[in-house]
Write a structure and sequence with these properties.
The chain is 17% helix and 40% strand. It is of the alpha+beta class. The protein is globular, with a radius of gyration of 15 Å.
Length: 125
């Protein structure tokens, strides 16, 4: 049954070497596992994501992956110190202030990786 299986996100990268540098140097992830030329990163609780090379990277206009945190401000401070710039949004139902959107469900912030993929960190209430 799929509901009992680990879930792995899949992200596109135009340049795998550049993406590897970003996820190591900016995000702070350990070395990925080589999966037949693709990069598999492991995160908490059995989660992870696969980066594969394609010219289509950065073309999605939606959040592609996110990390849950217990302290979004500390995570943002750390990521900013590594060069991450958080997105600012202002449209019906969502407005950020200093990169953070606060809703009934919690707080969220978005940024892009080296390949133009939209990533997210969030803190539930």
């Amino acid at each position: 049954m799929l509901k009992e299986r680990d879930l792995i996100a899949v992200l596109p990268a135009k340049d795998l070497a550049r993406a590897r540098d970003f996820y190591r140097d900016v995000i702070g992830l350990d070395n990925p596992e080589d999966m037949e030329g693709n990069l598999l990163y492991r995160c908490g609780n059995g989660t992870g994501f696969l980066l594969y090379e394609t010219e289509n990277a950065g073309s999605a206009k939606n959040t592609q992956m996110g990390w849950a945190t217990n302290n979004i401000e500390a995570e943002m401070e750390d990521l900013r110190s590594r060069g991450v710039v958080f997105e600012e949004y202002d449209f019906p139902g969502l407005k950020t202030e200093n990169g953070v959107a606060t809703t009934e469900g919690g707080k969220s912030a978005w940024f892009t990786d080296s390949e133009g993929n939209i990533l997210n960190i969030f803190q539930r209430r």
